[in-house]
Amino acid sequence: MSDVAAWIAVDWGSSNLRAWALDADNNVIAQAGSPRGMLGLAPDEFEGTLLELIDGWLPESAEAPLPVLICGMAGARQGWVEAAYLPLNDGTDNVLDRLGSRLTPVTTQDSRLQVQIVPGLCQHGAPNGGNAFDVMRGEETQLIGLIAERPGFSGAVCLPGTHSKWARLGNGRIASFDTFMSGELYKLLRYDSVLKHSLRGDDLSDEAQRGAFLAGIDTVLAAPERLSAELFGIRARDLLDTQLTQDETRGAWLGARLSGLVLGLELAGATASLPTDSQIVLIGADALCQRYRIALEHLGFTVGLEANEEMILTGLGHIRHAAATP
Amino acid sequence: MSDVAAWIAVDWGSSNLRAWALDADNNVIAQAGSPRGMLGLAPDEFEGTLLELIDGWLPESAEAPLPVLICGMAGARQGWVEAAYLPLNDGTDNVLDRLGSRLTPVTTQDSRLQVQIVPGLCQHGAPNGGNAFDVMRGEETQLIGLIAERPGFSGAVCLPGTHSKWARLGNGRIASFDTFMSGELYKLLRYDSVLKHSLRGDDLSDEAQRGAFLAGIDTVLAAPERLSAELFGIRARDLLDTQLTQDETRGAWLGARLSGLVLGLELAGATASLPTDSQIVLIGADALCQRYRIALEHLGFTVGLEANEEMILTGLGHIRHAAATP
User: What GO biological process, any one, is recorded here (chains A, B) (predicted)?
Assistant: First the structure.
């Protein structure tokens, strides 16, 4: 492992930023992070923000500028420089090569940097049953990482988050994808709706709360069209259900039920066309992936977990390689 | 018609208050309103708020105090005086008589008043397919009004609002009810979610917007489990759909689609067990009832409209009569 950086990988999301220095063999030799995500930055603030993090990794002279490859929301229209969405074709083309050939160069004041941004993917007209109109930005890199790590994998991949992505992979290609805004829906209901008075944060390691979570999943899978009635039912239970404990775990139990209802609706939609013995790969933050795993295993699916950071670094490495290959 | 008030009817909701003076034959001889709803008032502020509105209608002496009958959120735990929920039995009992016998008296400082509050209704254990736990407060009075006006009516009644109520009536009884928090869900998505950047208020008298509304209804009825994917699809359409107009009607078109998706989910749940040629009665604010009517007629239902105020006054009049009848 060398201690000289050959390139820098950056995952620049809406609400935070992570950077890694890698040697010529793609080993991580340094890493850094910051809460300065895209949403809090004007276009002319990105370069300075990045330099604060990576200045120590840069060469002293500008004779050989260091390549910096960025994925995520830094490429949004409101970001640093827009990296236009690349249309996902019918799933038969090599999206990796196309991503590599469509990197958006960013002109920097500091000549020691050579910055490029990975485009997001967009989808028109529901290829293979996905959303008629959909977009992703950042997750394409994780999916490229997964394809590189598991070239033979065929099936569904879920990247949980505020706007969860579900992609179908097959033959080393991304066939289609769907975004579910369940994470945002949960936050709105938990903190801004009439339900907020009834709810506390839950803990699925508690047996009763786990039971309430799974009952919420089952309820919404049995009748997804009753979601907004079941949501009000949480408020009514808080007023009426004398069998619920009266202490502080009451709110946690109801919070677990809310989580189950909202996540259950996503799973009902995302898994509707999957055979029940399918394997589903999860990529994302640990706690959220564990929650998805509990729900999916309850529904009979086999779940594989992949580390978020590894998928990003592998994905950026492969996109960089594709860009360098004529 | 006399100009001497025999009693006062009050509908005291979360965000406003309406009062009517009625003569001995229940003719309205005066009315008044105020934006001082229950949510903005401490318990000791209710009497003064009411007096500001009705002082001119009161007798000069306290020899014969004027009866005041209140329905709505003034009877909530956080209201003036709690009027505990009355359990809805199995739909075979006479809930009107029970409501009349369970009025909650309120002690006032002003001895010219004789105030009583109508209890709300609660539901345990899903009689006849309704929500396992549910509550209403105020709508029970409108339903009593409807039963009085249409004694032979059998079928579904919808009271649209922030928390829409759907009740089943039969044989002059309330059989069961369901609350859908679609109105609140719509507001959260319209004003507080990532979609807010894409949306404007819609106008269903515009043909294109009405089409977008109805397409939203059809989309969610065909696959209710895909709701949160279709919600994100609104954002993606705004980014990608080049066939949408670029002017200000674009946001209205997308707003109409959002309204269709959220209302469609409610209608999918609320009408799932209704024969498609059923009659559905709507009671509520005009604009919202018109929106429900357009959607329900699109789905093949026959819709009847009843005036909100008339149902409240008829309902309070009948509850008052039941209370006076041994």
Answer: D-galactonate catabolic process
Are the C-beta atoms of residues A204 and A173 closer than 8 Å to each other? no
Please report the residues numbered 64 through 103 in chain A whose beta carbons come closer than 8 angstroms to any beta carbon of chain B: 85
CA–CA gap between residue B235 and residue A136 (Å, rounded)? 11
Boundaries of every domain in chain A: 1-82+103-119, 121-326
CATH number of A1-82+103-119: 3.30.420.300
CA-nearest residue to B231 within chain A is A181
Kindly report the nearest CA distance between residue A143 and chain B, in angstroms. 19
Which of A85, A233, A241 is opposite residue B131, by nearest beta carbon? A233
Q: Tokens for B198?
A: 């894409």
A59: amino acid identity, one letter = P
Q: Which helix (H) or strand (E) holds A68?
A: strand A66-72
Confidence grade of residue A2 (pLDDT, cut at 50, 70, 90):
low
β-strands A104-106, A113-117: how paired?
antiparallel
The larger pLDDT score, comparing residue B137 to residue A94, is at B137
Q: What DSSP designation does B161 have?
A: S
Mutation test of the interface with chain A: which of B159, B232, B239, B266, choosing the one with the most A Cβ atoms within 10 A?
B232
Q: What angle do CA A12, A15, A19 make, to 5 degrees?
A: 30
Handedness of CA B248, B249, B251, B252 (dihedral sign): positive
Of B193, B223, B237, the CB nearest to A188: B193
Q: Are A130 and B236 in contact (CB under 8 A)?
A: no
CATH 3.90.1150.10 fits B120-326, yes or no: no
Q: What is the DSSP letter of A275?
A: -
pLDDT computed for residue B125 by the predictor: 72
Contact indicator for A202, A259 with CB cutoff of 8 Å: yes
For residues A30 and A20, the answer to whether their CB atoms sit within 8 Å is yes
User: Do the bridges between strand A66-72 and strand A7-12 make them parallel or antiparallel, or are there none, so unpaired?
Assistant: parallel
Comparing C-alpha atoms, which of A89, A99, A90 is closest to residue A148? A99
Q: How many residues does chain B have?
A: 326
Cα B248 from Cα B174, distance rounded (Å): 45
**One-letter identity of residue B145:** G
Amino acid code (one letter) for B38: M
Residue type, B54: I
Burial class (CB in 10 A: 0-12, 13-18, 19+), A25: exposed
> ipTM of this predicted complex?
0.93
- Picking from B240, B220, B242, B239, the residue whose alpha carbon sits closest to that of residue B295 is B220
Confidence of residue B137 (pLDDT cuts 50, 70, 90): very high
B27, HSE (Cβ side, Cα atoms, 13 Å): 7
Residues of A in contact with B78 (CB under 8 A): none
Q: Report the distance separating Cα A300 and Cα A275, nearest Å.
A: 10
CATH number for the region B1-83+104-116 comes to 3.30.420.300
Instruction: Return the half-sphere exposure (C-beta side, CA atoms, 13 A cut-off) of residue B212.
Output: 25
Whether A1-82+103-119 and A121-326 share one fold: the answer is: yes
Which residues does chain A have within 8 Å of residue B134's beta carbon, measured at their own beta carbons?
232-233, 236
Could you identify the residue written with the tokens 């819709």? B303
- The mean pLDDT value for B234-248 works out to 80
Exposure of A77 by Cβ count < 10 A (0-12 exposed, 13-18 middle, 19+ buried)? exposed
* Residue range A121-326 in CATH 3.30.420.310: yes
